[in-house]
Amino acid sequence: MRLKNKVAIVTGAAQGIGFSVAELFLREGAVVYLADVNSDAVAAAAAKLGGSAIAKSCDVSKKAACSQLVEDVMKEQGHLDILVNNAGILRTGDVLEISEEDFDAVLGVNLKGAFLLSQAAGKVMVDQETGGSIINMSSVNALLTIPNILPYNVSKGGLNQLTRVMAVALAQRGVRVNGVGPGSIATEMLEKVMEDDAARHAILSRTPMGRTGTPEEIARVALFLASEDSSYVTGQIIYADGGRLG
Ligand code: NAI
Asked: Could you tell me the keywords of this UniProt record (predicted)?
């Protein structure tokens, strides 16, 4: 029970990696707030998990929603120890054609969302003196250059810098900030990409382990960063990518 008496928020937890992170954190003894823009799906996800799983509807790209979420958690639990900024979206398109709307949408969720919630959660973590751990779900695409997902690549590159800057800024205020960089993980987001045979072949052939990862394999890295096992780790992005980055 590595997270006994801890309170965690996991965003984008209605499905995929976020759901697995919530599931593992619950098994490790935490109270877990599953936050997602898809209200019905997140309510169903929390009901499925049971126990100390609590569903909250939240669009992380909106400041008021992020503030409200942290306020609710503090009102209900009195402390907030772990934040996993996992919510993310992907839009594809040629770099010369991709719309302003798509660019703003991806940056709004993947980067600004993590910033807004880290700020709201960071304030209470600093004030409560027991500190906290913030984990950002980055991607190997923070470092790779894939032409048809420019906003996504830019958002994850920015997220790595957000992680490092916040880690340094909060290092003496008791809050650690780290990231997980998944490679190709078998979730709905990736299944859509892998429907295309060429994309499927490319993904598998460029992954030295020759397989996609599972959401649970990412959740275990997040658990390490959330727990005291990583008490001297901050400002790091741990890549779990089957060797993709070499
Ligand atoms: P997914 O598409 O299965 O789930 C994403 C969840 O985020 C959904 O439940 C969705 O409703 C929620 N969401 C979307 N916009 C939101 C918003 N504005 N506010 C709150 N929630 C919102 O995605 P998956 O695959 O589980 O990915 C999770 C994270 O991991 C993302 O940040 C993604 O970029 C990252 N990642 C995923 C990889 C993969 O291969 N699946 C690889 C590398 C990174």
From this structure: Oxidoreductase
Q: Which long-range CB contacts under 8 A does 193-199 form with residues at least 24 apart?
A: 193/90
What DSSP assignment string belongs to 32-78?
A: EEEEES-HHHHHHHHHHH-TTEEEEE--TT-HHHHHHHHHHHHHHHS
Residue 133 belongs to a domain:
yes
Name the DSSP letter for residue 123.
H
CATH number at residue 184: 3.40.50.720
Count of structural domains within the chain: 1
| Per-residue pLDDT tens over the stretch 77-91 | 999 999 999 999 999
Mean pLDDT of 231-236: 99
Is the pTM value of this prediction over 0.95? yes
ipTM over 0.90: yes
Which residues pair with residue 36 across a beta bridge? 57
pLDDT of residue 176: 99
Substitution site in 138, 189, 193 for ligand 1 pocket (most atoms within 8 Å of beta carbon): 189
Q: Which domain holds residue 128?
A: 7-238
139 lines ligand 1 (CB under 6 A): yes
Q: Distance, CA 146 to ligand 1 centroid (Å)?
A: 18
